[in-house]
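Teaching note: in complex prediction, the entire set of molecules is handled at once rather than each chain in isolation. The prompt given to students was simply: 'Predict the structure of this complex.' The entities are:
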Amino acid sequence: QQQVKQSPQSLIVQKGGISIINCAYENTAFDYFPWYQQFPGKGPALLIAIRPDVSEKKEGRFTISFNKSAKQFSLHIMDSQPGDSATYFCAASSPWGNQFYFGTGTSLTVIP
Amino acid sequence: DAGITQSPRYKITETGRQVTLMCHQTWSHSYMFWYRQDLGHGLRLIYYSAAADITDKGEVPDGYVVSRSKTENFPLTLESATRSQTSVYFCASSESSSNQPQHFGDGTRLSIL
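The expected output is the structure of the full assembly:
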């Protein structure tokens, strides 16, 4: 059973456009929702994260929107650039050590 | 340089062999993690460790063994490798818990023939 469901699987966006990736979860014990960015041959790197006491967090061109009642959160990349082309993973965790789950990933391609 | 390093980067072995993947971090982070990454599954937690000599199972622990005698090292052993364990393995660490940012190594690509 997939603890965190991520969509779409792949995404193609024009340079300057907005990229939107969505995730949904079921476990209400989750209280930490990070997004990771991964380039080929590299490990995932933390991009931005949110906790459920806020509905939105913005860092530069990257924004997380969080809807606690719907148990959904999304990543918005504004003014998408070719350098943003990578695989993006959402994740969710609870305070207990072994509950850390990743989504299945979204391959983003930004066309110049 | 400070960071988290994994070795080897690539490994090919045969079914039934024992293989150990190494992970070393220089931050003195308390928590360390092992994940496997497979297409269609994202990353799945194999084992984690909250401190030296404290380890616990994650989502997919079968067929794997871990140890943590020193804070900075967290080796992962496949005692009798199977083809289904062909994957890319990532080690990660975090400062205080799994609910904090995790820092990943660059992975070990393991192929089991």
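Point out the following to students. The first strand of chain B starts at residue 4 and ends at 7. Chain B touches chain A through 28 residues (CB under 8 Å).
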